[in-house]
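Q: Convert this sequence to structure tokens.
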Amino acid sequence: MTDAPSPLATPLPWNLVAEGYAQDVMPLFEVFARDALVRLGGAQGRTLADVACGPGTLALLAARQGATVRAIDFSPPMIALLRARAQAESLTVAAEVGDGMALPWADASVDAAASMFGLMFFPDRDRGLRELLRVLRPGGRAVVTSWVPAARIPLLETLFRLLGELSGAPASPPRVLPLTTAADCAREMSAAGFVDVEVAEVSASDRAPTTAALVESMVRSNAPVALLRERSGAAWPAMQQRLYDGLEAAFGPGPHTLTMIANVATGTRA
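A:
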């Protein structure tokens, strides 16, 4: 459960997409966050930890429902966005920059915990899972979400293939993200000490009117795309055109519906 470092395990790509992520991705991800809160048993009157919180998709929903929320992320721009949104809505969210593998909270200090599409990128997932378990009170539940294999989402599979070609990297098997199967999710949560582990699939869809709109959104909000853009400098406009051409050749001019499918794993501290 300790993998070779991934570029997505560093703050830079998430810093680059913070504003676009909040603008383009949060509405879609709220579907998964609402589902997670239901699986956690609701938020009203409870203390909830949101680990690798991003711009606060789950944290803000939980605070609106009456939870006392603690949120942490290693990206300062993401935390700044969360704080700004919480202040604008007069919500109380204790949001801080920090390491999800070394949580700054006491043992058995929260009623529920979640890591929405964040823990899957941790260099040491077992450590991250054990930290979630540590801060939970006995009987508390945690939700950890991750993506199914990209092969099940053809548009994303094509996007990642095109990114590999644009990066000029030698042809090789695509990097397999962790926790892409229900069996992997259940095994790793159980190994970390969670009991009564269950894994379900949840999906949510978004729609782009044209291929151009789809690519522009990905440039704003997709961390691998933003990282390639940052590294490419002046070469990026031509690369973005090639990305557009490849997606349009594969899927036409649009509109496009992107359906994201998540593994949603829940477990309990005994």
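The domain at 7-268 is CATH 3.40.50.150 (Rossmann fold).
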